[in-house]
Structures
1.
Amino acid sequence: MTDKAIAKLIDTINSSAQNMPSMVDKMVHQYAIGCFIQAGLLSILSAVLSFIAYLFYKQGIQRLNEYDEGFGFFIVAGILGVAVLILVIVVVFDISYGFSPIYSIIKELS
């Protein structure tokens, strides 16, 4: 390599290093916003599933005299309830993952 090529390489590396903080800031922002959007969508999905589970539970109560059908509605409502519980746990972890880079940045600044 010639001295001119080495100088150009060093200039390129230095300019990339200067742009790095703004790029990292954008990446952290995109990561946090992505986590919050995913948490919001999963919250909407869990609300819809809990409403459907409520409707199945209500149908099970109405058809309780017919043992097989009523029991089937309760099983479906229970399975949907477990799915909603899992989704709520995922939403909590999603929100905590969204706040973790912000928390670490604040911790480093103080």
2.
Amino acid sequence: MSGLFLCGDGYVKMKLLNKTCMNEPKIYEKLLEHDERLQVVEEKLGHLDGSMRTLQNSADKILHIVERLDQERIVTSHRIDSVEHTVARLEGV
């Protein structure tokens, strides 16, 4: 069954299979419901964005500490090698 149905400002031709055309109040109700749901999603994304920035800042601080410790480890290793060579040389005297 097909026909012309008034929806909004004009006529829309649609094929019906034992269904009725959604009326405008129902469409507006769904539109408002979806708008509210989108606002909730946007709020959650805003909180997530803030959390991600905090996480990124923390990761950057940790990386800085690890890089500094790695540099200290390299310097300490070289210094230990130098001291061991000095000790070996002194023991051989």
3.
Amino acid sequence: MDQMTDNQYKRFNRHECFTPEMMKMTGQCIDSLWSFYFSRKVNSTKTNIQVADLKNMLFGLYDGYLYDDLLPTALEVKVDAKTEEQIRGLIKAIEVFIKISQ
């Protein structure tokens, strides 16, 4: 079964939550993932699926979906330290927003 079908998520209003910096950071994470993926020439089907899932979870941020497996998937894929830090920052900011807006 595809990992994304089992994934849990939190909904948030991206228009209220995201600053221009968060929009830029999300785009940088996606760009970094593409660069990472193509530079490693990944041949593992499992890793290909994880990278595709991670890409979908990052794009999901633009639509107001914070997937619970975003960080664990990024760590499994072994994204670079800067991208990991950006993902951690985005998650923290979104979770704070969700908490104060309830």
4.
Amino acid sequence: MNDSMTEHKQQTVSVVLQALQLITLLIGVASVFLMVGRKDAQITSNSGEIGELRDIAMDLVRTSVEATSTNRNQDRQLDELRSRLMTLESQR
């Protein structure tokens, strides 16, 4: 009788240990999937931010080109005005 109780306790301990190993394994697998999901979300977020930065850089380049073009037009207009003033002064 004592041997059967000891054997039953050993089986119970064995079943409990196997259950704990299974739970540990499941937690490990779940944490791996969680980490992969987080990294995937971070990559998606970074891709969106990179796209935004690209759009901002393009807008800055466009603005810079327009400003340069505007400056050239203003310089040309100032040169024309200076030329007209010189003509008027020379006629005096």
